[in-house]
Give the backbone structure.
Amino acid sequence: NSELLDVDKKEKKFNNDGKIYVNLKALDKITAKTSSIRVSVGETVTFGNLKIKTLKCVSSSNEYNKDVTAYLQIKDISRKDDKQVFIFNGWTFASSPTLNSIDHPIYDLWLLSCENV
């Protein structure tokens, strides 16, 4: 029975649509609720007041230290004027989320993995 569950998980993880997906974990610090976010590379998703765009997701080829990195652009859309700027624009690392962290007073985001890389 546990073998069936493992097979189901593997089938869900890999899609045949050819898209690369970025998996993030998000924390709302006010409510202490966490959410899983799955977005394909090149797409934009909204979480709370954050607009998250994924531009790239790659897996390192080093066999001794495997890691996943993603290039993200994140805007805080709570401001209604034209001065919305990126609160984060750069690479983030699954193995070291604090190395290049996303700094926001209400939300935390962590890169978990990439699919179809």
About this structure: The CA atoms of residues 14 and 54 lie 18 Å apart. Residues 2-13 form the longest helix (12 residues). The two ends are 29 Å apart (CA to CA).
